[in-house]
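Researcher: I've been going back and forth with a colleague about how UDP-glucose 4-epimerase might be arranged in three dimensions. Neither of us has a model we trust, so I'd like an independent prediction. The organism is Amniculicola lignicola CBS 123094, in case that matters for your notes. Sequence below.
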Amino acid sequence: MAFPTGKRIVFTGGSGKAGRYVIPELLKRGHSVLNLDLVPFPDPSTNIMTLKTDLTKSGEVFNALTTHFNFAGYENALVPQPPDAVIHFGAYARNMLVPDNECFQANVTATYNVIEAACKLGVKKIIIASSETVYEVCFGQGDLEYTSFPLDEDMDVNPMDSYAISKLCGERVARGFARRFDVDIYSLRIGNVIEPHEYATDFPSYISNPKTRKRNAWSYIDARDLGQICDLCVQRDGLGFQIFNATNDTITARFPTRQFLEHWCPDTPVTRQMGMWEAPLSNAKIKDVLGFREEHDWRKYYNPDQ
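Model: Here is an independent structure prediction for UDP-glucose 4-epimerase. You can compare it with whatever you and your colleague have in mind.
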């Protein structure tokens, strides 16, 4: 497959669960990447340079966005330039890693700092990681019901936990800066990220105990397919501020979607005809607008009937 000319991308949080798969996918598609993180990239064979950066410190972020991607940058006369795109995944990944106030302030501050620095340095493409948790149920208090199915980007959302609220605040910062600076900022509401080995280790319990997957709306995103999504976002210009659900196509269940939801969420309205196996956290927009086509359907890796 031939890919378009690669871009220079600064990626924050690339050493985390998602980034360690997304960055190699970006490299395969011809991009060059600088990783901003507090720990090195876990795969030395990629030759990805990690610049240790505290994203909650505005000065460090501004400086990191005007840094050579590797030592080869010193070999020509061109001083460090801002990147073509910034992909911001760096954050506390969920609640209960640190106290709630720290999770909120760090995530919001980091997102603000990255967006502000990128916009003021003239970067025209910014992609930020939001979360499925904004749909309220994942870390909501008690056994909550979803508002309706499918879950899509136009729904009014009102999460109650610090992590999800921090992600919603990040979306609002992105919307405002996209308008002020006339740039593209795409916010990805990322589903439950699945690494390749987790199909064998985790999917047996996911399928046999459906109630445990309610918090994820019985949906997921393969970490490698998330890399494809990031590439599509980098390549597609001119959309301004956008929110995209970043999920794979199908429900993680033995039974077709409508039958499954009627059993597990009988009181939740279904607002349109859904595909036979369509994931409740809908990726229809990202397929229609960006052309996403999943490569890693979960049934390739785990047969629920065996």
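Researcher: What would you highlight for our discussion?
Model: I'd start with this: The chain has a mean pLDDT of 96. After that, consider the following. The CA atoms of residues 34 and 49 lie 6 Å apart.
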